[in-house]
OSB10 protein (Spizella passerina), 134 residues
Amino acid sequence: YHLIFSSSCTGVLHLLEHEEEYVFTLPSAYARSILTIPWVELGGKVNISCARTGYSATVTFHTKPFYGGKVHRVTAEVKHNPTNTIVCKAQGEWNGTLEFTYSNGDTKVIDTTKLPVIRKKIRPIANQGPLESR
C-alpha cells in the first residue's frame, strides 16, 4: 500500500494489489490531563470513500464525557453508494474490541489487542514524495 497525507488533513491510501484508492479525512486529536498523566484522545468524524468500488464509510470517534463513559469509543457505518445500502455497522473501542453487524444479520467481533503486528513496507525516504508518510 501507499499512504499520503496532504496539508488539508485528507489522506489517500492506494491498495496497489486491488487497484483501489481510498480517500479519507482524519479525526481531531485532543490532549487530555495535561497537568497529571497526559494522554491523547481522538474525536470527530472520519469519512472514507473509494470511487472504484462505490463504497464509503463514516467512522465517528466519540470523546469521553466529563462524567462517566468510556474512552476510545467508536461507531461506524459502511455504505454501498450505487445501491444506497448500509452493508455493515460497527461499534466498540478502536484500540480494543469491535463488533461488526452486517446487513444479512451476521455479526463478527474483533479484539484489536490480539491482532498480529505486521511491519510496514515502505520505499526508501529518498524515493518518497514530499507529502508521503514514512
The longest strand covers residues 39-50. Residues 56 and 117 are 26 Å apart (CA to CA). DSSP finds no helices and ten strands in the chain. The chain has one domain: 3-117.
